[in-house]
Design brief:
The chain is an all-alpha fold and about 210 residues long. It has a domain of about 90 residues: Orthogonal Bundle (Rna Polymerase Sigma Factor, Chain: A), CATH 1.10.1740.10. The protein is built from 9 helices and no strands. Helix 4 crosses helix 8.
Length: about 210
């Protein structure tokens, strides 16, 4: 099967997958697996867990694909909802929000001629992810769908079970919260650096006097 099929052709493939055609479901898997993995990875920050949860999403989708039509959702939105529920369970089971791992980020990047600039960029991204993870889960989900997956508000609304107008309103409030968290984060970082400097013993230059 070829990529770039129109909506009607994908609908035909979905019918084949629902009837038990493994090739049809394999095509759906290949089309959406990267998007679902990225979404889960940005919500968990752990490569191994993201891979495991992605596999569970498609396993669950394969088992229940015959019932997805009853929800009145596009197949991609249905997958995101499954992913969202699994990620929510993951956070509950872990009991805390995990930090975005710098080592995983470095490993995921291709080698370049300027690794120093890549490290600086990753460190800045890590700070941003720490800030995002201070937001409520719903707003984290919106940020990832909007900026990482680059989905339109209409599709985000289908995934999150909200109207397009509600998504626009939530997006505006999320940006305000993100800006506030961003300012607080760097304000605290500057204060920590200042206190660390104050704690270091001061060294005074004593010029040697020739006799």
């Amino acid at each position: 099967m070829e990529d770039g099929l129109n909506e009607n052709e994908e609908e035909r493939i979905l019918k084949l997958a629902a009837s038990g055609d493994p090739d049809a479901f394999g095509w759906l898997y290949e089309k959406y697996v990267a998007r679902i993995y990225n979404y889960i990875y940005y919500r968990t920050g752990i490569t191994a867990d993201a891979e495991d949860l992605t596999a569970k999403v498609f396993l669950r989708a394969m088992r229940h694909i015959r019932s997805y039509r009853d929800l009145g959702l596009p197949f991609s939105a249905w997958l995101y909802r499954i992913a969202h529920n699994l990620v929510a369970n993951w956070h509950r089971d872990n009991g805390r929000k995990k930090e975005f791992p710098l080592d995983d980020s470095l490993a995921a990047l291709p080698l370049t001629k300027h690794p120093e600039s890549e490290v600086v960029q990753i460190e800045e991204q890590e700070k941003l992810f720490r800030i995002i993870r201070k937001l409520p889960a719903e707003r984290q989900q919106l940020i990832i769908l909007k900026f990482v997956e680059q989905l339109p508000n209409s599709e985000i609304g289908q995934i999150m079970g909200k109207s397009e107008g509600a998504i626009k309103s939530l997006y505006h409030r999320t940006l305000l919260s993100l800006r506030k968290e961003y300012e607080n984060y760097f304000s605290n970082e500057i204060n920590d650096d200042f206190l660390a400097t104050k704690k270091r013993p001061q060294q005074f230059y004593s010029p040697k006097v020739k006799r």
